[in-house]
Amino acid sequence: MEHRLRPGDRLVVATHNRGKLREFETLLAPHGLGVLLAGDLGLPEPDETGTTFEENARIKALAAAEAARMPALADDSGVVVEALGGEPGVYSARWAGPEKDFRAAMAKVEEKLEEAGATAPDKRGARFVAVLCLAFPDGASEFYRGEVAGTLVWPPRGAGGFGYDPMFVPVGLTRTFAEITPEEKHAVSHRARAFARFVEARLGQSRGAAPGATGTIE
After folding, report:
1. 10-203: which CATH number, 3.30.70.270, 3.90.950.10, 3.20.10.10, 3.40.50.300?
2. Vertex 141 angle, CA 190 and 50, to 5°
């Protein structure tokens, strides 16, 4: 199978999260790639049994690619909190429970930070991680990773974004990801950085090697 993408091609976005889909659409539209939502195609959500962001992203992308018989793009992302030994990490979505209650998830993070004595700003460092996986129906896959460092605040602020955005202030800003505009977020977010590496490697729209991009087909 030819593992190429061209303007006009469509990808299945392996998510049932419409907030995440909107980010994918915004980031992919300038490159002429259309997106289909896995949920709209009736594709089930596979069990995320991996222990790394890469493993879970591949599980989702490959399941969608095989079911739809077309290339699929998935990401696995989460917040890695230094004072909590890296938690919730790959389990960030699970902390929100089956109801996807991220208010409760953020409260859990805050509770654990207080238990750890991490109340001062310099003790509340965290980073958002996103790993994109592009998978093809024949099982080939590749990964692109993006990260952004920041600080966790409480109480949560802002009505935009999704997930843990209302408690995360990226380095260099004073507002949370939920307080800035979508355009501002796309300029600095972990997902945008992963997408930049995907675009460079897959669509050849920038020069030089992107730091941290694997671009390796497995």
Report:
1. 3.90.950.10
2. 65
